[in-house]
Specification:
Strand order of the largest sheet: 5-8-6-7
Radius of gyration: 22 Å
Number of helices: 11
Largest sheet: 4 strands, antiparallel
Order of helices and strands: EEHHEHEHHHHHEHEEHEH
Distance between the termini: 36 Å
Shape: globular
Number of strands: 8
Length: 283
């Protein structure tokens, strides 16, 4: 909670006994000084509280965690792309936040650093080590998103509507949900946030409710995409009674950020955003 003076989004690392704090400082340096100045302020704060800390500033959660735990010199900032590549290549495979047995097996095969791991065929890595290794590798390099869930999350964005006449007509429900999703998408976009987990609640006239939990691969504030997923989930629901009230909320959100567009539309299959849309549909 004290670190919220440096960032509105302070998260704990994954694990039963977390020992790292993750601070999202995107777009904050104009308020708190340069990244180096901000890191120094954080270090001074912890020193005053009699804590010794290892601090790293990086473009991804995975890289910041890796350098803070395994980087030489303790506190580090990626000064340029060449520096970043050199540091990534020299990091041990344990810095990927992978299981101990996976790291041990890699060591037995003579793969001790990320630089040795990166050139290997991805398909063979997946077949040998499962999905976690590549997921952690992509999170470190930025090829895959990693959403920070704040320790003290802001109030969930929620919109709802009580129907004038209860109904079990799916066409009516789809129309109501489409309007609510449009409202929710506008609220999300205004905060530069996207939904990672949607919860849709259908309340029956008898007082019971039906919950739809809709997870997304990466944050989205696209009303069309969100409604498409809601519609796909609604198709699987058997309505047990007439619906009197509908709610939809973004239970978990993530930062949207910016994405470089392509000059030629025929290159969209290489866009990771489009891949995320496909994976959402398949799920």
């Amino acid at each position: 909670a004290a670190c919220e003076q440096f960032s509105p989004c302070v998260a704990l690392e994954e694990g039963d006994e977390p020992e790292s704090l993750l601070l999202d400082i995107f777009n904050l340096t104009h308020l708190l000084g340069s990244e180096a100045e901000l890191a120094a302020k954080v270090e001074r704060f912890f020193a005053a509280e009699r804590y010794r800390v290892q601090i790293a500033v990086a473009d991804t959660v995975g890289l910041a965690w890796a350098v803070a735990h395994y980087g030489e010199g303790g506190n580090c900032k990626m000064q340029n792309e060449n520096c970043k590549l050199q540091i990534v290549d020299s990091l041990p495979v344990e810095s990927l936040r992978i299981a101990d047995d996976t790291a041990a097996l890699l060591g037995q095969l003579g793969i001790e650093t990320i630089g040795q791991l990166l050139p290997l065929p991805r398909a063979s890595l997946t077949s040998r080590f499962g999905d976690q290794l590549l997921r952690r590798l992509d999170q470190l390099t930025g090829a895959a998103p990693e959403v920070l869930v704040p320790h003290r999350s802001p109030a969930a964005l929620e919109v709802g509507c009580s129907l004038e006449h209860a109904t079990s007509d799916r066409a009516v429900l789809v129309h109501v949900l489409a309007e609510l999703t449009e409202q929710l998408a506008r609220h999300l976009a205004a905060r530069d946030q996207g939904a990672v987990l949607l919860v849709c609640v259908l309340k029956y006239t008898g007082g019971e409710s039906r919950l739809l939990r809709i997870g997304l691969v990466q944050p989205s504030a696209s009303a069309r995409q969100l409604m498409e997923l809601v519609d796909l989930h609604l198709e699987t629901v058997v309505l047990e009674d007439e619906v009197a009230h509908v709610e939809i909320r973004a239970a978990v959100v993530g930062r949207l950020g910016e994405r470089q567009g392509e000059l030629f539309a025929d290159r969209w299959p290489t866009d990771p955003h489009q891949l995320a849309v496909l994976v959402n549909r398949l799920r």
